[in-house]
Write a structure and sequence with these properties.
single chain, alpha/beta, two-stranded parallel sheet, about 15% strand, Alpha/Gamma-adaptin-bd_p34, P-loop_NTPase, Alpha- and gamma-adaptin-binding protein p34
Length: about 325
């Protein structure tokens, strides 16, 4: 089955459900509406809905595609897809296996935002493959972010202070809005085609504050790296090769390489997957990784090296 559509001016997101929740209902949550508007594209088992949104700094317009079953996507359409959202039932192994069955279909799509959504993942369940640590490990290995719509309170408590973010569908929306879509238009500056993107002065100041807070949290973490274990938090050791999701980007910034002057935006667009990576580290690894991220953000913003003296970026 082939699919070919004219997606000239809009990049898009695939929304796929491997559970009882329909792709259309997920799109309703993203659009924050009770019922869907008329589809802007419709063919076979794929329908597209337009989403225009405005944030504090910019506005953009993309398409959200509800996918009912596996379809063959032509190269032109595939190139326009920059994000994919999977929903699965975390209580059914068959639902997660359905997600896995899609990987070959999507292997030629270069998606920058990849979300795996479910109601919640349990620390312990009847099937070890569905336990939270197993799902997180798969996400780390495949560069997906796990988004729980109703996370267990204990799992919320385990989130590292350096990587706080929105929850549930708010996080889904936040992740999509954090990506630099091709037709993004800054509120206070003109943005045309692929010219370098610029942050407003206020946005940079807020980002600098966030970097300083990260540095402060890291320093506090140095004082007692075992605090999470004392609280009974579960950690997961993951092989170093599996944790290299953003290593190339981070190392480029740490080594002073900034092609096009866009390293800060590139780092920001990958923040969600950095958070997911941190969730799979033990205490010592998490501390070192947080230091590395803090240094990279600071340098990407042109921060004074004296301000980060003492943080170790040699790892």
């Amino acid at each position: 089955m082939s699919f070919s559509e004219n997606v000239a001016d809009c990049e898009g997101t695939l929304v796929i459900s491997c559970g009882e929740v329909t792709p259309e209902s997920i799109i309703c949550k993203i659009l924050q509406v009770e019922s869907l508007p008329e589809a802007v594209t419709s063919k076979s088992n794929l329908k597209g809905y337009s989403w225009s949104f405005t944030t504090k700094y910019y506005s953009s317009k993309i398409n959200l595609f509800a996918v009912e079953e596996k379809v063959e996507l032509d190269p032109t359409f595939s190139e326009s897809i920059k994000a994919v959202i999977f929903y699965f039932d975390s209580k059914k192994l068959s639902s997660f296996e359905d997600v896995l069955s899609w990987m070959d279909t999507l292997k030629n799509i270069d998606t920058e935002v990849q979300l795996l959504v479910c109601n919640n993942c349990l620390d312990e369940c009847d099937n070890p493959a569905l336990e939270r640590k197993s799902i997180l490990k798969w996400c780390v290995e495949n560069q997906y972010e796990l988004v729980e719509l109703n996370p267990s309170p204990e799992n919320e408590d385990e989130d590292d202070e350096n990587f706080k973010s929105a929850k549930g569908y708010d996080r889904v929306i936040e992740a999509l809005q954090s990506y630099t879509w091709a037709n993004l238009v800054m509120k206070d500056e003109k943005f045309v085609d692929e010219s370098p993107k610029k942050e407003s002065a206020e946005g940079i100041r807020e980002s600098e504050d966030a970097a300083k807070e990260t540095k402060s949290s890291v320093s506090e973490n140095n004082k007692d790296s075992s605090s999470s274990e004392e609280k009974g938090c579960k950690t997961m050791n993951v092989d170093g090769e599996e944790l290299g999701l953003e290593e190339h980007l981070l190392n480029n910034v740490l080594n002073g390489e900034d092609p096009g002057g866009e390293s800060f935006e590139a780092l920001f667009s990958k923040f969600a997957s950095m958070k997911e990576k941190a969730a799979g580290l033990n205490n010592e690894e998490k501390k070192k990784y947080a230091e590395k991220v803090a240094i990279a953000f600071w340098r990407a913003m042109g921060g004074d090296e004296d301000e980060i003296e003492g943080l170790d970026d040699s790892e």
